[in-house]
Amino acid sequence: MMRKMLSICLALLVLPLALGAFAGCGGGGDSLAGTYVCTEHWNEGMVGRITFEFRSDGTVKMAPLGGEGTYEITNGTVTVVNDLMEDGVTLQIQDNTLRIENPLGDVVYTKQ
């Protein structure tokens, strides 16, 4: 009986920790939250003009292109979906930068 009670107590203590660890998977996440500014672009006129504002609730705002959307983090990438990009755009997460590989040249956003 004592062993069963101990097992139940241990499960009740561990379960919230496990659920908390998995909560960081998928949409949103505090590690990405913040504003990212375009620092490299194949079209130099876009540098410093395009921003992504990632919020910890899983939403994102793009400027000046406009549009609110959502994002999801999966395996070192973040996928942004909004009305302008219904199929989404995927960016590689590299430390404090986000990168889109493009045949014309990579596009890089740096966290401010």
TrEMBL record:
<feature type="signal peptide">
    <location>
        <begin position="1"/>
        <end position="23"/>
    </location>
</feature>
<keyword id="KW-0732">Signal</keyword>
<protein>
    <recommendedName>
        <fullName>DUF5640 domain-containing protein</fullName>
    </recommendedName>
</protein>
